[in-house]
Amino acid sequence: MGIIIAIDGPAGSGKSTTARLVADQLGYVYIDTGAMYRAVTLAAIRRGIAFTNRALGVLVKTINIQLEQSPNGQRTLLDGIDVSKEIRMPEITKHVSEVSASPEVREAMVHEQRRIGKKGGVVMDGRDIGTVVFPHADLKVFMTASIDIRAERRAEELQSKGIVTSASDIAIEIEERDNLDSNRATSPLIKAPDARILDTTSLSLQEQSDMIKNWAMEIINKTSNNKDI
Length: 229
Ligand code: CDP
Known about the structure:
It contains 9 helices and 8 strands. Helix content is 53%, strand content 17%. It has helices spanning 15-26, 34-46, 53-62, 90-100, 103-117, 129-133, 147-160, 167-183, 205-228; strands at residues 4-8, 29-32, 65-70, 73-78, 81-82, 122-126, 139-144, 196-199. The radius of gyration is 17 Å and the shape is globular. It has one domain (4-228): Rossmann fold (3-Layer(aba) Sandwich), CATH 3.40.50. By secondary structure, it is α/β, with parallel strands linked by helices. The strands form 2 sheets. It has a 5-stranded parallel β-sheet with strand order 2-6-1-7-8. It binds cytidine-5'-diphosphate. Cytidine-5'-diphosphate binds at residues 11, 16, 33-34, 37-38, 96-97, 100, 126-129, 177, 181.
């Protein structure tokens, strides 16, 4: 049991690191929905499939994407094989927004995300969690940060994985992706009206995860008090 925490926001706003920390602290499961769209993109590229809604719609019916919890975090399996590393490669990042704009792909992923999260006790991050996947989530957070800081964070993250890049190149890439994600017709990246905004530009990881954890604890305590009455 437990509540549903939805965290949305643009690339590099700190969603995944923060969401993972909050989930650990609450004893919840962390679900990185972006990994699912990345896995579909990897499958499409490997099979040489065009990024059209029709072709992608057929593809998602023939592949199996699983998110597995391991001591080192979430593992993403594509047809039973761990692709957690491959889905972070620049080639996937470059095309993922095109693939995730497909309504057929979204329908299949949202269906699975609801199945995983409906029992609660989850922190789920993505672009449409508070608007489409769980519009009645108990806590909704929309994370943002300045483009410079988002690009810096992402460049550092990639460099730590041995991928050489510059913050200015990353800034161009994430702005392009944010643009595509925010302007697509099906479930665009948008703040849910009842989401709390968390601007992480000048916050530390600890500060931002404490903020979310405190909001969550207020809701958890309220829910259990109501049950006692
Ligand atoms: O980690 P980063 O913010 O770079 O991206 P991600 O969370 O791995 O998501 C990769 C891409 O998947 C996004 O740019 C979106 O195009 C798509 N996505 C989506 O459409 N809906 C979600 N719920 C999650 C990701």
